């Protein structure tokens, strides 16, 4: 379902639209939660590029991608990177964390 949403948004709004970043973030979370963290990292890296370029680093959605990336790295036991990403998420000005 998320892959279909990604295709629709990319077709209608362009491959670098903020909505695509939102869908990619959710897809990355699904990959992390289904024990596919390496695939999650690929998807979340693209989500982060889109969110930072279209919304900026202080936007709530960008903070959510930092958090999602932190979770993916945590599942790989990459603690230093996950801590850095969680820190970025928590210092994001719009972040609820």
- Low-confidence segments: none
Helix content: over 70%
Alpha carbon gyration radius: 13 Å
Largest sheet descriptor = none
Into which percentage range does the β-strand content fall? under 5%
The structural class is mainly alpha
- For the record, give the distance between the C-alpha atoms at the N and C termini, rounded to a whole number: 28 Å
| Alpha plus pi helix count | 5
Number of DSSP E strands: 0
SSE string, helix = H, strand = E? HHHHH
Query: Please, what is the average pLDDT?
Result: 89
Morphology call: flat
Key terms for this structure?
mainly alpha, flat
SSE blueprint:
Elements: H1 2-13, H2 18-33, H3 37-54, H4 60-75, H5 79-91
Task: Describe what this molecule looks like in 3D.
The structure is a single chain. This protein is flat. 77% of the residues lie in helices and 0% in strands. It has helices at 2-13, 18-33, 37-54, 60-75, 79-91. Helix 2 (18-33) runs parallel beside helix 4 (60-75). The longest helix is centred in the middle third of the chain and has 18 residues, at 37-54. The protein has 5 helices and no strands. The protein is mostly helical. The mean pLDDT is 89.
